[in-house]
What does this fold into?
Amino acid sequence: MGSAPVRAGGTDPVGDRLSRTQRRGTGVGPGQSLITSGTAYPSRWAMADTSEGAVTASVAEVDVLHVEDDPAFAEVAKQFLERCDEALAVTTVTDPATALDRLDEGTFDCVLCDYVMPELTGIELLEDVRDAFPDIPFILFTGKGSESVASDAFSAGATDYFEKPDDASEYELLAERIATVVEKHHTEWRLARSEERYRRLIETAPVPIVVHRGDEILFANEAAAEFLSAEDPGELVGTDPLDYLATDDREVVRERVGKLLADETAVDSLVEEYVDVDGNSKHARVAGGAVEYGGDRAVQVMLRDVTERRAYERELERYRQLVGAMGDGIYALDAEGCFEMVNERMTALTGYGRDELLGQYAGHVMTDEGLATVESAIQSLVDGAAGSVTVEVMARNADGAEVPRELNLTLQSTADDERFAGTVGVVRDITERRAREQELRAQNERLEAFAEIVGHDLRNPLGVVSGHAELARERAADGASGEELIPQLEAIETAVGRMTSLTEDLLTLAEQGETVGDRRPVAVDEAVREVWSTLDTDGATLAVADPGCVRADPTRFQQLLANLLENAVEHGSTSSGPEVDDAVEHGPEDELTVSVVGTEDGFAVTDDGSGIPSDERDRVFERGHSTAASTGFGLAIVDAVAEAHGWTATAGESESGGARFHIHTDG
It folds into this structure.
């Protein structure tokens, strides 16, 4: 079950000699490896993963070819060895002439060979074995040992030398020696394979890699030759690596290399300028560290060609001053989405300094939703859907505030127009524009409401006026006296009064959509009493209990109070039921009390009237909504004034069961 020795000049047949045990059920055929990395281990070695993730091997069975002309001794040796170590499987050959054939036919890990045999000696067989199988462990196992024989054996390439035991206990030592040489052989084989894989990886790596010892290049891969414009890597080997540096301070670089050779300190990634064999200037980002190469300490350097990027950076620098003074924010992102250029306006818009932005990921100054929008826009640019894209996003400033921004994006240009190099963007603050758009939408909503009211609410009283005027005209034509026409005239007067109220409320509501004027501290109790004195309170009583002070536009605040107090007087004594029922709700001895009280976050206007039905409270601030014979705009005006101040108005029930309107002035 071991691997066949490798004949000199042949290929490693390890992968072709997987044991039947391992192949069974795996679907692995000759020439295939059980290890997905492509590393072919002898089939007798059990695979195990170390904590570092590297694959190690442990011997599952060691196949030993024992060449011994004495069959009796060979059988004794087989029994003792397999008893001492269960991993050993000994196959005996009594004719040394057939040993090479057995090695060809079998998969052996080690040869244990007698020295004195009839046809040829163990040394002679060793020489034949080494010609065909230069690497297989070979132990000369003899009963006629001497220093001369041992010397000849090692000179011929023996792996070890062991005298035949005088007692059984020495077989344990022999078994250990066999296991040791096999383990050593496999370790060396595995190391050679690892080094070969590493070399192939380095040679075919797409990035330039150079190994040198300070004054001489020892190795260069194809990518390094291409970077330095050499015909092949061999043109670079043997030359001084510092000859390709376009710097006058070569001694500093040489000193840095000396430190690398002295210890294992790696070189931080840095950009250096090089001159290739044709004299062209190139730039590369360099990282290096100390390695063992050919048994000696050396320096391995990896280079990333940034020549095009440096050229672009120089071009970008020429435009930096041009965009620095522009009124819009301008930035450039690299392919990773990090800022590589920002102008002064960009720093003002974000609240970050230039040094804080450069190298920072763009998502740092955007909300998650804004970042997703930008990524989608960039993808459309990459897909060629458009040459530039304009999007609106919410940005996040240094103070954490989220603000609206308009971004106009385009791709950075490259020499081949195929490689994505990043984006260039223009940022504009659209806070004021958003406010104007919002105000325009509000105005449109008000216009729609006005159109609805004009088309419906004003048409009804106009119809009343028209109808009663026609009746009055007909009755006058029939000779009716002036006193007889009074009912029609009173109906007309009532309708005109309602139209006047509607018109005044519409004008007031239209004004509330405008931005409030200068705010200043206003004592709520004084403002309430002043407004109350101007209202027809119909005998209602006012109670004021420390409502506090607010910062408000005094005129608009009085409009808010007037509508709240007027609503309390008008609706507090009127339920949503029929008017005949309302007439007895508050009699002469049951006066309405309107209270204005302070709260933790503002103030409230309450009454002890009939209250607001629970299913109506969410709708009382809607325009035109009313539970009584009013315009339905008073509370809509209250809501509009509160919103213009950044406040919130809510409706509820007072402790006495009446209405309660809470103005939240603290958010």
Observations:
- The first strand starts at residue 45 and ends at 49.
- The mean pLDDT is 79.
